[in-house]
Write a structure and sequence with these properties.
single chain, OB fold (Dihydrolipoamide Acetyltransferase, E2P), 10 strands, 2 domains, five-stranded antiparallel β-sheet, alpha+beta, five-stranded mixed β-sheet
Length: 188
Amino acid sequence: MNATTDGTFRVLPGRTDDEWLLLEVESADPTYVPAADAPDLEVGNRVEVTLEWDDDDPTIAEWSLLEPTRFHFVRTEEPVFQAAQACFEEARKAGEPMNSRVTYNTDNQANGVVYTFAAQSGQRDLFAEFRDGGKPLEPLVARVADSESETPPFSVWVLDVPEPFVLVYIVFDQDGLLAETMDETYGS
């Protein structure tokens, strides 16, 4: 009988289209599994998974959806929105490598949080680190869920834009107008 392990994971894109990267929520340990094991998963989902191990090769024995948050990873030449530019400029003036700000709709209701991360010199690709789990998004999602009195599921956008920063935008209502606008502008 093969060994099994249970855990809570965030689903990320795998190294190929034929696999998922399951990033353990607490430790950020990566596990790559065949996408065919769970074709209904979506990038960003938070799931409870039982992994079955055959030597060093894990497969998903069973899984259940805990939170249907969606992550979108997009490299784009589209211009960035004003709130993200202002957020980055505030960080630059303060000499900080990252900054965040709450965004509001026309009725002055909070609808998201934008984070900007200054581009890193040398070979470091922050966008790829977010997509590949090297720089986990979990702490940002947890911070928003804890501090903004908003509850998941969210629509999380990681954008590599033609600016000196990478941005992460956590949209509170994944089916709302802002999420729709993000999809129309930056579609994943």
